[in-house]
Amino acid sequence: MEIIYSMVAFFQKGGLFMYPILIVFAVGMAIAVERWVQLNLIRQRNRKMWGQVQPLLAEGDFDQAREMTNDDKSTIAQMLSMGLARQGAVRRREDIEIAMEECMMEIIPQLEKRTPYIALLSNIATLLGLLGTIMGLIEAFTAVANANPAEKADLLSASISVAMNTTAFGLMAAIPLLLLHAKLTSTTGQIVDSLEMASVKALNSISNSSKRQFPAG
Length: 217
Prior knowledge:
By secondary structure, the chain is mostly helical. The protein has one domain. The protein has 7 helices and no strands. The longest helix is centred in the C-terminal third of the chain and has 62 residues. Its main location: membrane. Keywords: Cell membrane, Membrane, Protein transport, Transmembrane, Transmembrane helix, Transport. It is found in: Cell membrane; Membrane. This is Outer membrane transport energization protein ExbB.
């Protein structure tokens, strides 16, 4: 309980700027949690879908793979569906690759959406903390100017201590948001890498199947 009382006292001493910092932190955490849940769901669905469709691609059963990807809503299924649709129509590797790259250009912004706001909110929390400290120092020096000379040192040190609370709280809010932003960016990169790997493997399977059906010479 003492820790809670200390936190409450720390927050109350910081002044009005503690509230916007808290709001910024709460918004940033809400976005981070939502993105974390979504990215993990996307990754799990992609892994499940790839585990089902990879054997079909390796066997050259593109009709079954096409039907499976059309019925699935995962990002990897969307990408493979575009490529397999071209495979059934033209069979040219370049056209299939372009189709999957076009789909990737639509998928990547969906994976990255709202994540940059976390870094932005982290910077805002830091700046609000600094602004709160500066405003607190201005008030402190104004109050000290009219104070009794014997009390100036004590009053100034107490006022500066209170003013620094906003900077400390701003950094306490900003650091976790920055770490979460880095983790989400890394997770997004891993998903994109897995999609690119699946694209290359699918293209290789299609090319190998075409060579078996239409051998050179």
